[in-house]
Structure formats: structure tokens, C-alpha cells
Amino acid sequence: MSNFFRxxxxxxxxxxxxxxxxxxKREYGLDKVVKLASNENPIGCSKKAKEALRKAAKNxxxxxxxxxxxxxxxxxxxxxxxxxxxxxxSGADEMxxxxxxxxxxxxxxxxxxxxxFPRYIATTKMMGGIPKIVPLKDYTYDLDSMLKAIxxxxxxxxxxxxxxxxxxxxxxxxxxKFLDQVPENVVVVYDEAYREYVTRDDFTxxxxxxxxxxxxxxxxxxxxxxxxxxxxxxxxxxxxKEIIENLNKVRGPFNVNSLGQAAAIGALEDDDFVKxxxxxxxxxxxxxxxxxxxxxxSFPPTETNHIYLDVKKDAQEVFIEMQKKGVIIRPMGGxxxxxxxxxMEENKFFIKTLKEVLGKDVEEALx
Length: 367
Hints:
Blueprint: H1 21-28, E1 34-35, H2 47-56, H3 69-79, E2 86-89, H4 91-103, E3 109-113, H5 119-126, E4 130-134, H6 143-148, E5 154-160, H7 172-181, E6 187-191, H8 208-213, E7 217-222, E8 235-238, H9 241-250, H10 258-268, H11 271-294, E9 306-310, H12 315-324, E10 327-328, E11 330-331, E12 336-340, H13 344-358
Parallel strand pairs: 1-10, 3-4, 3-5, 5-6, 6-7
Antiparallel strand pairs: 2-8, 7-8, 9-12, 11-12
């Protein structure tokens, strides 16, 4: 049987998502479980998105609009682009695979960081590409070393900004300087899934400018995080017409379902909801910073809705012990975990539980 499968996938492992709440409840006999493992929106999605979902659910027997016409128009209007400069996808995950299928040939070199979103390396190997791994520097993309890694065989570069899982970011000045030096025949995918959470003024607020200036750049975004539509799966990519046209040749038919298209259109109309999420995340981040510093735990400053944390113990062991007490986090290898920023109640429960697991003095964290 082993001879049936492509050589490119023999060393790949299935993606492991954060554990579902119900699984943990059943395994440990718990009534209360908080999931802070997958960087999800802790209060769900906007009322406008929910209302759009209710209307769309009235007829699910008809195939969705395979062109996602109304959704493209909504993206175009909101971001001041044309409809042929944007392509919706079933979350960013599908688009990552679509990009790989569109650009990566066997033996092409693909540059990425060593600690970043794992799908980049998996989809590169799947297409027979050769991953060129560049270590982070101070938990942040080392753009100078990435430039040095470019060879005649380089086809594509993955940039996650802000980065998952470290939460660190590259400034607009740094990314422009980098793109100025990347050869035009090398594709750069600028993944900004967490853009709505960024607080710093030196972030690239309008990545459309990068797409317009550099014909080899794609800006990839999602509605799974700040917009709270992770369960519906809607992402979108902005680039020039030629790149979008070729991505469109590769994507699956009806890849964004009717519910996803409707919910996304509703969500895009609710700027107040996104602002509310931004403020909630900022409040939670400040609280967690203060408490983690009291515990003498180190972490890089984050511009996302998660924190990359050194717990000074085996991360897998901490992951298991936290689950037993009703908190799901993400082990990241070594002594590092990633924890999502939740509601204030969830954040306090996390701190209380982490203190218990690490043997710290447990204060009145839930007061």
C-alpha cells in the first residue's frame, strides 16, 4: 500500500487543531472548560453576521455563488480595490494550499521562518518544494537573513505579520525595505491574519499599497479572528489581476459556502464590532502582561490576540495539567506555550490555573 502514495507526503503529519471543549470535558469529567488554544474570538461574531446567517440558512439546497460575486463586491467597496483584485477562500488555510499549487514546482526553494504558521512548510513539501528555514531573531522575522537565503531557485517567501505564534511584528519601513530588495520573480505572500489587533503606529495599515507597488506580492487576510467567523471559514487574498486570475484557476469550485459568503458580508458592515473586539483584546492583554510579569515569566510583546509564553517547564506537561483543570492552551515545543487572550473571566481563570500548575503562589486571581 505504501507505494500508492506520493513521496512528497510521506513525511507529513496531519495538522493538529486545538482540542475541542467537549472532548476535554468528557476525558476529565469537567463541567467547565475554557479554550484558549486557537486564537478564536472570545465573544463570537457580530449581530449583523448572525442575521445574515439566519437569512441565508432558509435555502441550503442550492449551490453557493461559485464566483462569490456579492462578497467580492463587499471586499472591493470596503478596501477600495476592484473585484478582480480579490479572491475569497475557505479560510486562510485553503488559500495557503491554493498559493502553493499555483506557484511551487518540484525542487523550487521556499523561504519561511523557523517559528511561524506550520501550514507554510507542510504545503511546500506537499508540492515537492524545498523549505529554506530562517531562524527568528528576538522572536521576530529576520528579514536580512531571508534576503541572504534567496537563490536562483527561490520561488516564494512566506511572511506572517504579525507572526503566529510569537505575536511579534515587522514595521512598515522594514517590510518596504525588504520588498525593495526581493527579485521580482520571487513571490512574497504577506499573511496578515491578525492585522485588526495591532496597536503600533508603525504597522502597515494599508497593505493594498504594497500590492499596488510590488507586482509579486499577495496580501492574505481572514475573517476567522477579529470578525469571529472561524467556524464559517472565510478568508480573502488581495493582489494584482494576473495573480488573482491564476489563483482562481486552481481553487476548488464553490469553495466558500453560502453561509460563509452571507456572514462575511454582514460582518464587513460592522466596524463597531471590530472596534469592540480590539478594545477587549487590549484590556485582556494588559491584564495578562501584569500577571505574567508577577509570576516572573517571559514573553515577547504581542500585536495579536495571543501570547507566546515561556513557562520554564515542559510545554506538553503543562498542556496536559492545564487541561485536567479545565483550560486548553497550545504547547509550542520546549518550554513555550501559546495562549489566546479571552474574556476577562477566561483570562483570570487561566492565570489562576497556570499558577496552580506551575506551583506558584495562588492569589485571588478570580476576585
